[in-house]
Amino acid sequence: MHPMINTAVKAARRAAAIINRASFELDQLRIGRKGPNDFVTEVDQAAEQAIVDVLRTAYPDHAILAEESGASANLHDENDNVWIIDPLDGTTNFIHGFPQYAVSIALQQRGQITQAVVYDPNRNELFTATKGAGAFLNDKRLRVAKRDKLADALIGTGFPYSDLSALDDYVKMFHLMTQKSAGLRRPGSAALDLAYVAAGRLDGFFEKNLKPWDMAAGALLISEAGGIVANFSGESDYLYKGDVIAGSPKVFAQMLNVLAPFA
User: Fold this and answer.
1) Does the global pTM surpass 0.90?
2) How far apart are CA 154 and CA 206, in angstroms?
3) Which among 21, 106, 116, 254 has the fewest CB atoms less than 10 Å away?
């Protein structure tokens, strides 16, 4: 395993320990709101700090882009190494004791995501990828599903909450994709949904208005597992545009054909 992945795994496990302890005391959580249906807890903040501490100890010159604390002071064009962190993807699920959430950590080097970790503390499932070296679930090599027809495919998605004006378009997309696929699922953690595409548990995924920390790690997992990730126009600038379609190659192409009008 790549040394940087080892460090990211250490950071993810340290954050997961905080999350797991707190999961037994949900009634004592202090919960705040960043916006409509957008929650943050002291667990998100403590888990993020644990991740940052591990990464800064190992790589003090690297920049940080994290969900709760934002960008570090040294995040600029000249910094070749940026860690993109979501300490608890699926906070709303966590608050309700719904066991679908994860820690997501990715390393961007010179504009390319090169290392990825998504860790599910509920199932002790560790998804990792290094650019050019494949994607893994624990020690098992991952490949995207082999289904070649959208009509047979199980597709993951997410509902808008930060931009409720987009809801009308989402209803249209849900209607189309429900008709054209075997089923839609909305578990509530984009990082895990993308990891599940890499693992072949989902055949595809789409969502709009995501942040880089929602999808950076999951996107590398998919590409290293033989899948495709792009925006709704089929282009590669999804990470900071926020709109993403991902899937196995043939299912991806069919999803893109259905969803391109919503780009």
Assistant:
1) yes
2) 12
3) 21
